[in-house]
Target: Agmatine deiminase family protein
Amino acid sequence: MPAEWAPQSAVMLTWPHPGTDWSDSLAEVEPVFLDVARAVLRFEHVVLSCEHVVRLQELERDLNDYARKRELPGRVVAVPAPANDTWARDHGPIAIASVDGPELLDFRFNAWGGKFPWEKDDALNRHLANFGSFGTTRLVPVEFVLEGGSIESDGQGTILTTSECLLTPSRNPTMDRGAIEHLMAETLGTDRVLWLNHGYLDGDDTDSHIDTLARFCAADHICYVACPDVSDEHYSALAAMEEELQQFHQANGQPYRLTSLPWPDAIHGDDGERLPATYANFLIINGAVLVPVYGVPQDEEALNILAGLFPDREMIPVNCRPLIRQHGSLHCITMQIPAGVVKA
Model:
């Protein structure tokens, strides 16, 4: 499984529509999706699906006009397809590199253990493949529930994940840790799996997806969220996660370089619930890193830290405050497609 910083041909977006949980907030959330799409088009293509055909046609026209007028390299591949929701990271295909070129794996998706409707999302990759969005690249079905946000790859055979997510019985109830490691070795080419047993974010529906907590920023370097406030409910779990990361070693036996990310001020929804704001939910694309920001004082520090971790890429902040009202952020709404797949 390639690392996210490997060359890409496109980023996949599943557009919000009135039939999703965004129905009452489309005016606030669509600008976030537009900001992401426009940023991606500066560097690569966008595969964009939407259940509402008229809105899809508008987006295809407007975004391609935007790219052409600015002589950007990216174009939009627009696909009419039903969807329950917009979290492309988790229902999108997971790429692997094979001797014959890239392949796309279509793992099962069941809305994080059956928490919400999922049947349309589970079929979405097949719709995209039948439309020709992935060219001649194979889409390979895998009868195993796995979300892209639950795994991080260093591109060299190591997967970072959380036991809270992958071992939840509502996903793959017949499989224990050993069976899951064996399946990932067969499907993703994994040599070893690093399991985090601690760490969570209040308001997270995913059972502690790794992409909200800790991320590879190089094969030997992991960045992670840290909570310095001992009075915060997250302090103990994230401190325990930090200790686990300090005990991890690379395949060569060397410890990882570790960089902590800022802890944003608490953000609450209209009903008073705490929302899962995290700076770990960034997206790496060709030539840039899209960084979620939330209108809090820690945004600037997060941008500066990530700029130091990715010195050869432009930092592009994206206001993700509207996204976290539905308990996800920037990385959650995107899925990268490797180089050589999408030819818009």
